[in-house]
Amino acid sequence: MTLRIAVPNKGSLSAKAIELLLDAGYRAHRRNRELRVTDSANDITFFFQRPKDIATYVGSGDLEVGITGLDLLTNSAAPARPILDLGFARSEFRFAAPPGTITSVPELQGRRVATSFPVLVEKHLADHGVRVELIRLDGAVENAIELGVADAIADVVETGESLRSAGLVPFGEPVMRSQAILIQSTRRAYTDDQAVAIQALTRRLRGVLDSRLYAVMDYNCPKAVLDRACALTPGIESPTISPMADRGWVAVRSLVRRDEAQRVMDELEAIGAKAILVTALEGCRITPAP
Ligand SMILES: Nc1ncnc2c1ncn2[C@@H]1O[C@H](COP(=O)(O)OP(=O)(O)OP(=O)(O)O)[C@@H](O)[C@H]1O
Ligand SMILES: O=P(O)(O)OC[C@H]1O[C@H](OP(=O)(O)OP(=O)(O)O)[C@H](O)[C@@H]1O
Ligand SMILES: [Mg+2]
């Protein structure tokens, strides 16, 4: 097997990582509770591992690549590096405490800080010259203060709901911003075949991410406002302009960001464009290879 890839077997990363691989044409379905799935057609084996262990396997070179979180990679201190941002599991890593108790990082000096990311926290505090008593927990860290084992916590924050419901407020700058990433080892040597296979995987994943980000926009445009229309829909390289039977009009096709499509349609309509269509992408290769 040319490529062995570590995929999170549970938690916030798992379902989205598998969905991404399936959308990229890989057979990454787990039947029952399989921990290893081989996709012979693509010459890949997926190993379903605990999210916290993935950087260790990839860093050591025992698996070629893996999907993990930037915060987990940093916390592992494994010799591995991100090769592609995957855009999901976006979060911040923050300190928090009950309001009015600890409100800045220097005030943590000598206090008890609970976390399940001890390496990440220790490094950040060392960089700020602050020494604490670290309380290592596995999860549900927000309860640690009320239960009396810590004075502050450092944990993943997405919506902030877990902090709010535990009566905690974040303080200090975020320790880091994280998202899901594809990683490879910085230490091992990859064979030429493996390097080519990693490139192919990366291009496929990037294609899926771009397909989710962009849509095709088609519209009919009076020639008199074509410059303004093209400025609204510049596309990635340049819009495609085709003649129409009515010589006063042209047909324009361009890629637009999905999250901007409604605004762009409003503005095109306002300058006189007609028959504006937005079509989702099933797949694409539009950004350059890494
Ligand atoms: N609520 C969340 N929203 C977005 N990303 C999250 C959230 N919780 C965790 N993550 C991210 O998911 C990755 C895995 O985090 P973690 O190890 O805490 O696993 P988990 O998804 O919480 O599963 P578990 O704690 O049950 O093992 C990390 O990169 C983290 O930043
Ligand atoms: O800001 P929020 O949207 O509330 O999300 C953040 C919470 O999500 C994660 O917890 P998870 O559910 O994975 O439980 P865990 O603490 O056991 O990891 C994380 O550890 C936070 O507790
Ligand atoms: Mg968690």
UniProtKB/TrEMBL annotation:
Q: Which reaction does it catalyse?
A: 1-(5-phospho-beta-D-ribosyl)-ATP + diphosphate = 5-phospho-alpha-D-ribose 1-diphosphate + ATP
Q: How is its activity regulated?
A: Feedback inhibited by histidine.
State the compartments where it is located. Answer: Cytoplasm
The pathway that the record names for this protein is:
Amino-acid biosynthesis; L-histidine biosynthesis; L-histidine from 5-phospho-alpha-D-ribose 1-diphosphate: step 1/9
Q: Which Pfam families match?
A: HisG (PF01634), HisG_C (PF08029)
Keywords (alphabetical) are: Amino-acid biosynthesis, ATP-binding, Cytoplasm, Glycosyltransferase, Histidine biosynthesis, Magnesium, Metal-binding, Nucleotide-binding, Transferase
Q: Which GO terms describe its molecular function?
A: glycosyltransferase activity
Q: Where are the transmembrane segments?
A: none
Boundaries of each ATP phosphoribosyltransferase catalytic domain copy? 50-207
The EC code for this enzyme is: 2.4.2.17
This protein's major location comes to cytoplasm
Q: Which domain of life is it from?
A: Bacteria
For the keyword Coiled coil, the answer is: no
Q: Histidine biosynthesis HisG C-terminal domain spans which residues?
A: 214-282
Q: What does the record give as cofactor?
A: Mg(2+)
Q: Which InterPro entries did the record assign?
A: ATP-PRT_HisG_long (IPR020621), ATP_PRibTrfase_cat (IPR013820), ATP_PRibTrfase_HisG (IPR001348), HisG_C (IPR013115), N-reg_PII-like_a/b (IPR011322), N-reg_PII/ATP_PRibTrfase_C (IPR015867)
Q: Which PANTHER family match?
A: ATP PHOSPHORIBOSYLTRANSFERASE (PTHR21403:SF8), ATP PHOSPHORIBOSYLTRANSFERASE ATP-PRTASE (PTHR21403)
Q: What does this protein do?
A: Catalyzes the condensation of ATP and 5-phosphoribose 1-diphosphate to form N'-(5'-phosphoribosyl)-ATP (PR-ATP). Has a crucial role in the pathway because the rate of histidine biosynthesis seems to be controlled primarily by regulation of HisG enzymatic activity.
The cross-references to NCBIfam families, in alphabetical order and at most eight, read: hisG (TIGR00070), HisG_C-term (TIGR03455)
Q: Which family does it belong to?
A: Belongs to the ATP phosphoribosyltransferase family. Long subfamily.
Q: What name goes with this protein? A: ATP phosphoribosyltransferase
Instruction: State the organism of origin.
Output: Streptoalloteichus tenebrarius (strain ATCC 17920 / DSM 40477 / JCM 4838 / CBS 697.72 / NBRC 16177 / NCIMB 11028 / NRRL B-12390 / A12253. 1 / ISP 5477) (Streptomyces tenebrarius)
Q: What is the lineage of its organism?
A: Bacteria, Bacillati, Actinomycetota, Actinomycetes, Pseudonocardiales
Q: Which gene encodes it?
A: hisG
